Structures are given as C-alpha cells and as structure tokens.
C-alpha cells in the first residue's frame, strides 16, 4: 500500500550526513520535518542549538536508545519554542502567503511523496511526510521552498525567505507518529494564534 506508514527500521542501512545539523536517511521511511523562515531564530540561539545537536550526534555513533532519542528530541523542542515565539516578519501569518506554502506541500502529494498532517505557522511549518521511491527528502524540501519562494517574491524582503536547512528526524513507531500528529494539531493553540493566522491540514495520509 503506497500510503502505508513505514517507521525507522534499525536493522536496515542508514545514511548519515551533516551540514550544520545532523540528518539520518533510510529509504522508504517517514519523517517529521520542520522548515522555517530565515529570520525566525536569533543567530546566537541557532548556533548554540546546532552545536549541541552536533555534539550529541558525534557522541552517539551507534544505534540510539529510547533515552538517547528523548534527549535529542528535547533539543528539537527548544527550537520549537523559539519558533512559536513568533520572531521575525512572520509573512505566513497572512492567509494568502500561508496558502502558497500549503499548495506547495500538497502539489505532488500521492505522486512523489505522501503527506500526512501539516501546519503552516507564521514563521515556520511542520509536516509528516514519506518520500516515495526516486524522490529523496532533500529534493522534496528544495521543491517546496523554491516553489513558495518564487510565488512569494513580491514580499521583497531583500533576504531569502527560508532558512536553507530544515530540521528532520525519522519517525520510529506508530505511537510516535500519533504523538507528532497531536503536536501538529495543538501547535497553533500553544502559540496563541487565532483562526486565519495558520493553516492546519492533511494530505493523502498514512495508514498502518
């Protein structure tokens, strides 16, 4: 079934690489991705969090235990708090701008990837996505950002719309998927947003 949820499988090969942040890749698996606008995090905070994430990655070269994963996800939660604080110009608070990002996420849904749940916040977005064969996550993220940047070029900020690198991790279990779904659904309320200041949605969706 094409829209079956496929978790991280520890016995299968994993590709690891780093730019500023660590990234794990496994064919066919499902990811939780956070992408954000270029002005959404203070530079010193972003650098500190990157450093901590890299230190953790370098000290955990073997298979991560549940405790390891909880520690790493705690770093991600710190980033989410900064994003939810609403720093920067927050162009996606405008419903028309947020709709452009939504359309980008769903454009190849069911063709190149399967989108489960997503939310477009004023300065960032969260999405659960499973790339389909032949379409690596990096290419998918690039297409989302490129498409939306072109459509929103009228904003004329003089700076890139998106932070080049996104945060992502492999989802390990169905229970983790459910927790992330709840996180996405509750994100606007936690950030004290009103109707019309965000877009909460679902794509083709994943099933067991």
Describe the structure using short key phrases.
7 strands, 208 residues, alpha+beta, Alpha-Beta Plaits, 5 helices, single chain, globular, two-stranded antiparallel ribbon
Could you walk me through the main structural features you see in this protein, from its secondary elements to its overall organization?
This protein is an alpha+beta fold and 208 residues long. It has a single domain (15-202), classed as Transposase IS200-like (Alpha-Beta Plaits, 2-Layer Sandwich), CATH 3.30.70. The chain is 38% helix and 18% strand. It is built from 5 helices and 7 strands; from the N terminus they run βββαααββαβαβ. It has helices at residues 43-58, 66-84, 95-106, 137-151, 174-190, and strands at residues 15-18, 22-25, 31-36, 113-120, 124-131, 167-170, 199-202. The strands form 2 sheets. The chain has a 5-stranded antiparallel β-sheet with strand order 6-3-5-4-7, with helices on both faces. Strands 1-2 form a two-stranded antiparallel sheet. Helix 3 (95-106) packs antiparallel against helix 4. The longest helix has 19 residues, at 66-84. It is globular. The relative contact order is 0.23.
């Amino acid at each position: 079934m094409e829209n079956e949820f496929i978790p991280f499988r520890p016995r299968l090969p994993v590709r690891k690489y780093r730019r500023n942040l660590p990234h794990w890749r496994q064919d066919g698996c499902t990811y939780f991705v956070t992408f954000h606008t270029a002005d959404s995090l203070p530079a010193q905070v972003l650098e500190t969090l990157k450093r901590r994430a890299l230190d953790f990655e370098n000290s955990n070269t073997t298979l991560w235990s549940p405790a390891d994963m909880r520690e790493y996800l705690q770093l991600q939660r710190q980033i989410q708090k900064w994003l939810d604080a609403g720093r920067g110009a927050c162009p996606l608070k405008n419903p028309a701008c947020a709709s452009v990002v939504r359309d980008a996420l769903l454009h190849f849904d069911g063709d190149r990837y399967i989108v489960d749940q997503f939310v477009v916040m004023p300065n960032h977005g969260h999405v659960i996505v499973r790339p389909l064969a032949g379409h690596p996550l990096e290419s998918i993220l690039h297409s989302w950002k490129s498409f939306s940047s072109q459509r929103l070029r009228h904003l004329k900020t003089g700076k890139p719309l998106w932070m080049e690198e996104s945060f992502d991790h492999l989802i390990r279990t169905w229970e983790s998927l459910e927790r992330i779904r709840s996180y996405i659904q509750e994100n606007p309320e936690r950030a004290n947003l009103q109707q019309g200041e965000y877009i909460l949605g679902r794509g083709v969706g994943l099933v067991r």
